[in-house]
Design brief:
Shape: elongated
Structural class: alpha/beta
Number of strands: 8
Number of domains: 2
Order of helices and strands: EHEHEHEHEHHHHHHHEHHEHE
Helix content: 25-40%
Bound molecules: S-adenosylmethionine
CATH architecture of the largest domain: 3-Layer(aba) Sandwich
Strand order of the largest sheet: 1-4-3-2-5-6-8-7
Number of helices: 14
CATH class of the largest domain: Alpha Beta
Length: 338
């Protein structure tokens, strides 16, 4: 990950979900070191900074170069910014010579500026390129991936990450249009978000013969492609495995998740202290803290769920994005304290 320095930029804002509740969950003390692993537009980071003393520290990470660019304007000595994936957090801390932090906050999913910028390609409400990458500096766009994927690969992504029941029909139509160059412009391989939304609408509408939809028929397809192209679930799984090793005894993890695949991973990571201790995959050697030759005794640590909060009616009225949100707070418990 690259550290960045300060400067100012526009104000595409994001209304944070569970702002106070998630930061309360970190149980902040003034001199502690905390990580906001999903900086976005800094709503949670600002709240953390407001509760830290002059000797506290906040490490903020985001995959999106725009988020980091925006963060530079904050210009707070206690804040260090890193562009990269939170799945590399243990390596980042190692490079900073920080063994343990006091808490980590994760607010998953996409930020409003990402969804609202047509050119980022996240939304079927606006016309933009089929991109959907959070990290625009690396990796394949959705369009590039669709151009090379097989029908089965596309079907699997739509099914696994979107639970799309008509995944095989959508995949078949995409591959048909890609491989048979049809002169009919309305039947061409999608180049934009609107083209893809129209294709999915036509496939689903044709199969279901229904003309009223509570949500746009392309919702699940867009969610699935976004999760896949950004490696979202693998990144989350990786970080959750690292947490017991990099957060101190009695430290906290606050996670805001937005769909069932994320909810399940977070729940599992905090499920049973005993089960986790016995099936412990975040071994310090695996995380690169020590070489295979080192014989070091490590405390067995795990995350214990201490709070789960669903949005209230007022939360949802104030911020409709919170509709599907779930906040889980976990405390890190180590069998032997250091
Ligand atoms: C919901 S927004 C966070 C909003 C933020 N809490 C705020 O108050 O402004 C999620 C952010 O996490 C970032 N993100 C998602 N996955 C990531 C990952 N694996 N590593 C780093 N950042 C990630 C996205 O780019 C996005 O900016």
């Amino acid at each position: 990950m690259n550290e960045t320095s300060s400067n100012s930029r526009g104000n595409n804002l994001h209304q944070p979900v569970f702002l106070e509740e998630a930061v309360d969950g970190l149980n902040i003390f003034s001199g502690g070191t905390y990580v906001d692993a999903t900086f976005g537009r800094g709503g949670h980071s600002m709240e953390i900074l407001s509760r830290l003393g002059f000797d506290g520290k906040l490490i903020a990470i985001d995959k999106d170069p725009d988020a980091i660019e925006y963060a530079k304007a904050l210009n707070d000595k206690r804040l260090s910014l890193y562009h990269g994936s939170f799945s590399d957090l243990s390596f980042l801390l190692k490079s900073l010579k920080i063994k343990k932090v006091n808490g980590v906050l994760l607010d998953l999913g996409v930020s409003s500026p990402q969804v609202d910028s047509a050119e980022r390609g996240f939304s079927f409400q606006t016309t933009g390129p089929l991109d959907m990458r959070m990290n625009t500096s690396t990796g394949q766009t959705v369009h590039e991936w669709l151009k090379g994927a097989t029908s089965l690969q596309i079907e699997k992504v739509l099914k696994d990450f979107g639970d799309e029941k008509l995944s095989s029909f959508i995949a078949a139509e995409l591959v048909l249009r890609r491989d048979n160059k049809d002169c009919n412009t309305s039947k061409q391989f999608p180049e934009t978000t609107s083209d893809l939304a129209d294709l999915v609408f036509d496939v689903i509408d044709g199969k279901r013969k229904r003309h009223y939809y509570k949500t746009h028929p392309a919702t699940k397809t867009f969610q699935a492609l976004r999760i896949f192209i950004n490696n979202e679930l693998e990144d989350l799984k990786d970080l959750l495995e690292q947490i017991p090793m990099i957060v101190s005894h009695n430290g906290r993890l606050s996670v805001i998740s937005f769909h069932s695949l994320e909810h399940r991973l977070v729940k599992f990571s905090m499920r049973s202290r005993k089960a986790q201790c016995n099936n412990y995959s975040a071994h310090p050697k695996r995380l690169g803290f020590f070489s295979d030759q080192d014989t070091v005794k490590f405390p067995t640590c795990a995350i214990k769920e201490i709070k789960k909060i669903k949005p209230s009616r007022e939360n949802i009225q104030r911020n409709p994005r919170s509709r599907s949100a779930l906040l889980r707070v976990g405390e890190i418990i180590c069998a032997k304290q250091e």
